[in-house]
Design brief:
- This protein is an all-beta fold.
- It folds into 2 domains: 133 residues, Jelly Rolls; 93 residues, Immunoglobulin-like (Sandwich), CATH 2.60.40.
- Helices cover 0% and strands 50% of the residues.
- It is built from no helices and 18 strands.
- The strands form 4 sheets. Strands 1, 2, 4, 5, 7 and 10 form a 6-stranded mixed β-sheet that branches. It has a 4-stranded antiparallel β-sheet with strand order 6-3-8-9, with no helix packed on it.
- Strand 11 and strand 12 form a beta hairpin.
- The protein starts with 5 loop residues before the first strand and ends with a strand.
Length: 248
């Protein structure tokens, strides 16, 4: 990718999908990064479309360092034109439901029309293009071990407004971890715990939540072994993750 002014964008800001708003400008570069939350375990295929050049990168887990380029557009395509070039389509990728995977789209715009979008085909054959916003969550900078007794809030931002907030502390924990979350719009929410293999272990909360009211539940270590766990908050429109570490 050539050197252009670069905009680091929060995914899911305009159309609540993995895509950008068309006709944003000329001569710029964009980096749209975050996490994917696969709804099914199995093999996925990805596509990217954009004007002008764009690339799609995916990690084997939630770490940026493990990303590799899986698809790209060497010239330009029409809006959501998924099949213009063979390189737009990725190889088949095996993903596990409940885990989160770092994903990044790079976009370089010169002049004229500008847009970028990402699609996927699920293991059951369903094609979704662009990827819907409820399968995305924003990128969170990694925490340096030993610098904090808690975790920074994992938030989902839409058009500059935070709509979901999820925190967990202490983290790492040995006996109890206090999980707190808040929605900016009322609705149903489910809070669940997954292990490092993406297996659902516990449901911490399920029910209706009022707007701007902080909810708190306790994750007890009980019979859980030491390790890394993912707390998954799901609403009607969003999925947000928080990773916690249990040490005994």
């Amino acid at each position: 990718m050539s050197c252009f002014p670069v905009i680091t964008a929060i995914m899911n800001t305009q159309q609540y999908t993995y895509s950008t708003q068309a006709a944003s400008g000329d001569n710029y570069g964009a980096r749209i990064r975050g996490y994917l939350c696969p709804p099914q375990t199995g093999t996925y295929t990805f596509w990217i479309a954009g004007d002008d050049n764009c690339e799609l990168w995916l990690s084997t887990d939630d770490a940026l360092a493990n990303k590799t380029r899986i698809a790209h557009v060497q010239d330009w395509t029409g809006s959501r034109e998924w099949y213009k070039y063979p390189a737009q389509q990725s190889a088949r990728m095996y993903l596990v439901a409940g885990r989160r995977y770092f994903v990044e789209a790079l976009h370089k715009e010169q002049g004229g029309n500008d847009h970028v979008a990402v699609a996927w085909r699920l293991p059951d054959g369903t094609m979704q293009g662009p990827i819907p916003g409820n399968r995305l969550s924003p990128y969170v900078e990694p925490v340096v071990k030993g610098t904090s007794t808690g975790t920074p809030a994992s938030t989902l931002t839409l058009a500059g407004t935070t709509v979901v907030e999820l925190t967990a502390s202490p983290n790492p924990f040995s006996n109890e971890c206090y999980v707190r979350f808040k929605l900016m719009t009322p609705g149903p929410a489910t809070l669940a715990v997954y292990d490092s293999k993406g297996r659902s272990l516990r449901q911490l909360f399920t029910g209706m939540v009022e707007a701007f009211v902080q909810q708190e539940v306790v994750l007890k270590s009980d019979d859980l072994p030491s390790g890394i766990y993912t707390i998954l908050l799901t609403t009607d429109t969003e999925v947000v993750h928080q990773r916690v570490i249990l040490t005994k």
